[in-house]
Amino acid sequence: MIYGQELLQVEFLPYTPRPIRTLKLVADDAIDYAWKSEDRSTLNHLFAQKGDCDDILIVKNGLLTDSSYSNLAFYDGEAWYTPETPLLQGIQRECLLREGCLIPTSIRVEDLNCFSQIALINAMLELGDCVVDVMNVFGE
After folding, report:
1. 21-138 domain in CATH 3.20.10.10?
2. Which of 3, 82, 88, 108 allows an S-S link to 102, with CB 3.0 to 4.6 Å?
3. Which tens digit of pLDDT belongs to each residue from 54-71?
4. What CA–CA distance (Å, rounded) separates 60 from 124?
5. Total-model pTM
6. Considering only CA atoms, which of 63, 80, 76 is closest in space to residue 113?
7. Environment class of residue 13 by beta-carbon count within 10 Å: exposed (0-12), middle (13-18) or buried (19+)?
């Protein structure tokens, strides 16, 4: 849906999740994506820095936030945690928080080694649909 003061356009497209096996840490301390927007130029600029990786992990002020198209959940072997300050408060993330499936916390880059897996979640990806081993996260 594209909208401003009123609804401008509705379009339905098939959703085919991309296979994500590797992630690249990319920092941007100025990024602001609090609202879903048709303008993804900042996200696209960061995504272009992924190199040989499948997607990116966005780092803002030393904290992990989101990937280029999803919120994140980190597994420590016992529980799933999600960044306390994501770029976008996604619907799936909010639902999982309300259900008690995710624990919000600050997750710094140096905390990555405390986790074994990272799940990418969004309105079309449930917890567990897309999981990446932390060993497949590469530095900036």
Report:
1. yes
2. 82
3. 999 999 999 999 999 899
4. 25
5. 0.86
6. 76
7. exposed
